[in-house]
Amino acid sequence: MEMQTEKLDGDITRVRLVGRMDYAGATEIDARFMELAGREKFVLVDLSKVSFLASMGIRTLIMGAKALKARGGKMLLFCPETMVAMVLKTSGTDILIPVYYDLPLACNALQPSRAPKS
Amino acid sequence: MVVPNNLSELTRVCEWLRGFAHERRLAGRAAHWLELTVNEALTNIICHAYGDHARHEIVVDLIAQPDRIRVEIEDDGIPFNPLELPIAAQPENLEKSAQTGRGIPLMRSFMDELHYQRRDNRNILTMVLLNTHLR
Questions:
Q1: What kind of architecture, by CATH, is found in domain B2-130?
Q2: pLDDT at B2
Q3: Inter-chain touch A91–B10, beta carbons under 8 Å
């Protein structure tokens, strides 16, 4: 699994995950993901290139979201594909970490009034 | 397929499942739920079924029928019936949510039938996915 980061307008970090979020994928990114959750404040996790999400991957997302929230930060999930979205919904993860499909709306939810222009 | 009780084996299992799904021309969603639920069942067994550090073997059988796929997973771990696990209430918020424990609910949600039996000191979990060419 790949993990790429970019800064968006304001203090938002977009984390693009690419590949499978199963045991192997989660293990590959756990340390980096938690380090980012301990450093950044507003995190948008782009799931559009995640092809498979299992409970080990959900664990990684929840641990990161908890770490951010404990520091006064926020995380949300962006653009999961259909099957991944069904797993998020069925597991109740979408209640714990909001899911968005529109980038300006997502950024505004993270940091009101600092959404990017496109 | 015989799977040693090591999480690193899951990649090989998923590749085998994808090959099976391709050969049987399963519909996309059916193939996906098959892979997910077997992945979750094996993760639970590997993580929780054994109280020792010994090598154990888990046997996974796939039986294809015209309108369904049956998966049988057999292990020699401690007796455990996943169907007896109470259905947990959805957590109210992130702070109260557990980090783990989502595997069995996912199996229950995405498989059409789940059956368990204990036989000869072994757990036998059977999962059935219906209408696998239509989903």
A1: 2-Layer Sandwich (3.30)
A2: 97
A3: no
